[in-house]
């Protein structure tokens, strides 16, 4: 079967190229249901005045926005003031669930990351993965609004998106995975730290980890480059897919400590040939 024939005809070549840069196959892209949209339409649908570029729409299957239309985000072809993605002004944050997730074999580990493309790449590789739209965009809108009125900051008491809680409780383990640059970006890192703590606070066995940076060999030495989950899977699928469980246990040990030698020996065996960055 010619899978490429199933690609949406309305996808601009630049938008298709952007999706493929995340390692997405034609079948995955077709299942996502993305479509290219002109600047004026994005302005009209989002109400965000800073939009000055066309882009493509990433639908969130089965979710409606505040107007009753299909919910989704627009990925701008030319970012404006670091704004790459835009959703409708006033729309509540939603959990993105890749179309492929429902068809994967059972797993006891759920990965939560930032960004639809990363989640789709992970699901394409057989990883149970969902995404929030930003490191701080995991809060349930109503509860967060009440907190703001009371002058409270986001904390472990802040409720996550209900869909995320419901899904997370179906898994034995949940690993929140951030991009490699979060290790040094403490403000952004705090968003995912609090998400992890909020999940733990609600009885979910959760841990936080970061992708390793990419290493580039240049004339003046080795340099590090930011790497997200999709980049890591493209660079080394074998190591990335096998490191996730080790990352989870590493995060849990970081948080709880090791109580006896047998656990230490088991972890030593688990981490053999694995290198990863993690936090409890």
List low-confidence stretches: 1-5
Helix and strand element order: HHEHEEEEHEHHEHEEEHHHE
Based on CA atoms alone, the radius of gyration comes out at 19 Å
Distance between the termini: 45 Å
Number of helices: 10
Indicate the percent of residues in helices: 25-40%
The share of residues in extended strands comes to 15-25%
Total strand segments = 11
Strand order of the largest sheet: 6-5-7-8-11
Shape: globular
User: Which structural class matches the secondary elements?
Assistant: alpha/beta
Kindly report the average pLDDT value: 88
Biggest sheet, open or closed, and with what strands and sense?
5 strands, mixed
Structure described in brief:
With 280 residues, this protein is an alpha/beta fold. The protein is 36% helix and 22% strand.
Please tell me about this protein's structure:
This protein starts with 12 loop residues before the first helix and ends with a strand. Helix 8 packs across helix 9 (237-256). The model is unreliable at 1-5 (pLDDT under 50). It contains ten helices and eleven strands. By secondary structure, the chain is of the alpha/beta class. The relative contact order is 0.10. Helix 7 links the parallel strand 7 (173-178) and strand 8. The chain is globular, with a radius of gyration of 19 Å. The strands form three sheets. It has a five-stranded mixed β-sheet. It has a four-stranded antiparallel β-sheet with strand order 1-2-3-4. Strands 9-10 form a two-stranded antiparallel ribbon.
């Amino acid at each position: 079967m010619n899978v490429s024939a199933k690609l949406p005809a309305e996808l601009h070549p630049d938008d298709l190229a952007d999706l493929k840069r995340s390692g997405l196959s034609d079948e995955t892209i077709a299942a996502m249901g993305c479509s290219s949209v002109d600047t004026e339409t994005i302005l009209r649908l989002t109400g965000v005045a800073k939009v000055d570029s066309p882009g493509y729409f990433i639908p969130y299957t089965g979710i409606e926005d505040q107007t009753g239309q299909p919910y989704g985000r627009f990925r701008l072809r030319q970012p404006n003031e670091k704004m790459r993605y835009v959703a409708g002004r006033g729309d509540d944050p939603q959990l993105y669930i890749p179309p492929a997730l429902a068809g994967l074999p059972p797993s006891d580990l759920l990965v939560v990351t930032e960004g639809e493309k990363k989640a789709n790449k992970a699901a394409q590789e057989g990883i149970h993965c969902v995404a929030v739209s930003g490191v701080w965009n995991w809060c349930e809108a109503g509860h967060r609004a009440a907190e703001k009125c009371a002058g409270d900051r986001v904390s472990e008491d802040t409720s996550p998106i209900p869909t995320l809680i419901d899904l997370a409780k179906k898994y034995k383990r949940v690993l929140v995975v951030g991009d490699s640059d979060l290790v040094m970006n403490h403000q952004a890192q705090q968003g995912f730290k609090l998400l992890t703590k909020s999940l733990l606070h609600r009885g979910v066995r959760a841990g936080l980890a970061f992708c390793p940076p990419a290493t580039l060999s240049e004339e003046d030495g080795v340099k590090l480059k930011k790497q997200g989950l999709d980049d890591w899977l493209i660079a080394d699928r074998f190591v990335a897919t096998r490191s996730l469980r080790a990352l989870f246990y590493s995060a849990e040990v970081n948080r709880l400590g090791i109580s006896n030698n047998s656990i230490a020996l088991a972890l030593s065996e688990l981490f053999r040939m694995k290198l990863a960055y993690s936090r409890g």
